[in-house]
Specification:
The complex is a heterodimer. By secondary structure, chain A is an alpha/beta fold. Chain A is about 25% helix and about 15% strand. Chain A has 13 helices and 16 strands. Chain B is mainly α. Chain B has 2 domains: about 100 residues, no CATH class; about 70 residues, no CATH class. Chain B is built from 10 helices and no strands. In chain B, helix 4 packs across helix 6. The two termini of chain B are about 50 Å apart. The chains are: A alpha/beta, B mainly alpha.
Chain lengths: ~525, ~180
Amino acid sequence: MAVEPADVLIIGAGASGAVVAKRLAEAGFKVVCLEQGEWLNKDDYPGTRTDWELRARKEWATSPNVRGLPADYPIDDSDSPVAPLMYNAVGGSTIIFAGAWPRALPSDFRVRSLDGVADDWPISYFDLQPYFYRTDRDFGVSGLPGDPAYPPDTEDAPMPPLPIGSAGLKVARAHTKLGWHWWPEFNSINSTPYDGRRPCVQRSTCQSGCNEGAKASTDATHWPKAIALGARLVTGARVSRIETNGAGLATGATWIDREGAEHFEPARVVVLAANAIGTPRLLLLSASSRFPDGLANSSGMVGKRLMMHPFANVAGLFEEPLMSWQGQFGDLIESLEFYETDEKRGFVRGARWGMAPTGGPINAALPSRAGEQAWGPDHHLHFRTHFGHGANWGLFGEDLPDETNTVVLSKTVKDSSGIAAPEIHYHMSDNTRRMLDFHIERAKESLIEAGAFKIEVDRLMRYSGWHLLGTARMGDDPATSVLDKWNRTHDVPNLYVADGSCFVTSSGVNPTSTIVAIALRAADHMVETRFEQQVPA
Amino acid sequence: MTYTLDAGRLVVLAQIADHLIPAAHGMPSAGAVVDAGRLAFVLGARPDLREPLAAALRPELGEDPAARLAALAKDEEGNLSALQLVIVGGYYTDKGVRELIGYNGQEAIEVKSWLLPQYLEEGLIDKVLERGPVWRDPATGKRAVVANAPRTYAERFAATTPDAQPNSQGGPDGRDSA
């Protein structure tokens, strides 16, 4: 018996896939989603267990290569100083993301016009502003309104801000003396009961799943609502290719279940929401005689311009205890003081600073991300100096697009279903290196002003590729871009990409808030144009 | 069945543990803490460490802990990391050690949203607002100019809709001052 095609087939149940699914289900679309991971139970998250830090380094590691769980696929990242991070489950990487929720800034969408590099986006900050309000409500955002680093808002975050902690307060006072920007961070973490979910309890284990359900992950915030509206979510479904017909339209996806059996899910429209590594991988896997270089790749831009936000960490150690193993791992405070271009600095664009908790005792005892190895009798002094006495600035540098930073298909590595794994080739530009060096020096000044007696610097963290962006960029010109400004591929009129692949430039901030606002805008447009949508016969 | 090491490797593990974390500064040595029970706990959580741990403790690497660690650091970084993690993990998940360092695990601490945050009381936000908008206007490329931008939090607060008014919080440690 033939299966009735879905109105829309979504590939990936993470942040953007969930947003699109819920919006389309609300509008009455018949939605099916294929997700290679499974549903998780927050009672199984390790944050409340004594062995939390041990499990966080393996089965709850942020790198799929370290985890190696059945839902994961390997990524050949041997030609990159930065390892890409993600999670494969219902909720996707929102299961393990920190929850920091800054928006891209207005200048981020006009990089070519303002700074003469990279490209402008076909959309602006102000196009996204109403969607930011809606996604803030849907995800549940805590924050102090009025940050002067952003244009004025007509709607405040739905919850008051989370605490900034003793470390955040100390540094906020220092920035007041320096005359530098700081602000309590916006986080998609409940500060009060909200939407049926409990408030944060400051356990700081956000990156191993939130035991409270306080952090927004789409398995809790979106999927139950989408499913109640009729969406069908198939788990354990690893998509191997998107199929097309003779007219060049997408007809659905072929997928493989856990037992290795192959299936086909027919659809009138396909939306890719598999992140900026998984999405170009699938487009490249979907090459055919009509699309010999990969689906939607007439521009040659699929898989190119991978951006991952090279990340430096600057830690200040303080004499007084700060209890800095507690607090939301989404940030305590942020600074955008040096975010905008000042050419006198020797580079263009800038970086956002976010201050997060410093981790538990095992993290303090081992050679940490900014610590020193100390064994022997001085181990205990090393430990006391580091544990609960740190304030860390994490610095995300804007990563300008470079066509030699790529996602391609591996000729040698395959996933457990026998599908070619992605292989990334990535280097950091001189502009980014100069940018991070500058920001490291300023972050040191910040922490010294706050009273740190010692500073430790990690100039580039390998396991920091949280932000996967740019590998199917949007643009007005089909010759130089994969997607139009509504996230539809130029080449295949019923194929969309809703994830961070669409980014034209990377901004210098955590991107999830912006990704989901763009995804909601695309879904709204799909609803508005549903009767003009070209679909297979 | 609980996994454990052979007797010879257990002896070497204790020696290495004492070498890395000796008794000092009022703290016990790791050799005294990381016993068979702690080892089983760590390897229960991390069965993937069994093989590299056994390799790091193999007799062929000799009896001198420093020489063993140097050899591992030179040629077997993965095995060395596993050995260090087992020792540190066993030590810092021990109840007695946690009492000595004043750590009760990652605790659930109530967010006190009814308290006024210290940073607002101290006027730190007012100082940020005093400088005016700092975002770069894409239309001009210059720092934005916003008519009637609030210069104190009281002004911003007064402009906020009642339902959305922030109502503050304490620090993550139950304190809101350092």
